Sequence to fold (244 residues):
Amino acid sequence: MSSISETGHAKNVDNLGNLIAGIATYGAKYNPANPLIVATALKAKEASARASIDTLNTAAIRYANASNKRESTFMPLNSLVTRALNVLRSSASADNTDATVASIARKITSTRTAAKKEATATAADVKVATISTSQRSFDSLADNFDRFVEALANIAEYKPNEEELKVEALKAFAAELRSCNNECNAASFALDSARDARNAELYTPNTGLVDVALSAKTYVKALFGVNSTEYKRIASIEFRNKKL
Fold:
């Protein structure tokens, strides 16, 4: 199976707990030679798998919070860039100077529109590919805004009276954007790492939760027989695998 919902991962862990409860009723009869499926090993696997899911859930919440903070921080960017550009155009600066700054501004406003769409998709369903694309968009925004501010800082005619449009204020905002974006990128990488760890814990061939649980079920089948009450008690407990 190529995909499984976040609920499905947790269900695998829950079902291992159910399997362990069933196995406990067999007492000393359950005595497999495979060390991975002895009762203590199964309990340890359940605990480590559940911990990996808890860690992932925490990382997902942190990423969502950082993403929402970044989105709100970047929200005024288009308006601010447009206002600053119009202040420049209203000054005595040369037309070719205005054109150069306007070309940087266009990169910001067009990327900002794309980033807003990606952020909406990410909020609805956190996906690695979407995060990666959104990350690049916001990196580009921060880079181009730095260029935009630096360009204005080197134009003598750019001397707005509005505090929020002055070069120092724009530089402070650029630093805030950069800090916020870095925080979100770090949370994204942490989320990816936690997802990889969860997948390894549950789905690594032979030693992951799913394969271990299926091996335990197979041992019960061999021990008591496919038509036995003991096996039928745990036969319907399902474990869904996924491709790593």
Q: What stands out?
A: Helices lie at 6-24, 39-74, 77-89, 95-124, 128-153, 167-203, 209-224, 229-235. Residues 120-127 have pLDDT under 50 and may be disordered. The chain has eight helices and no strands.
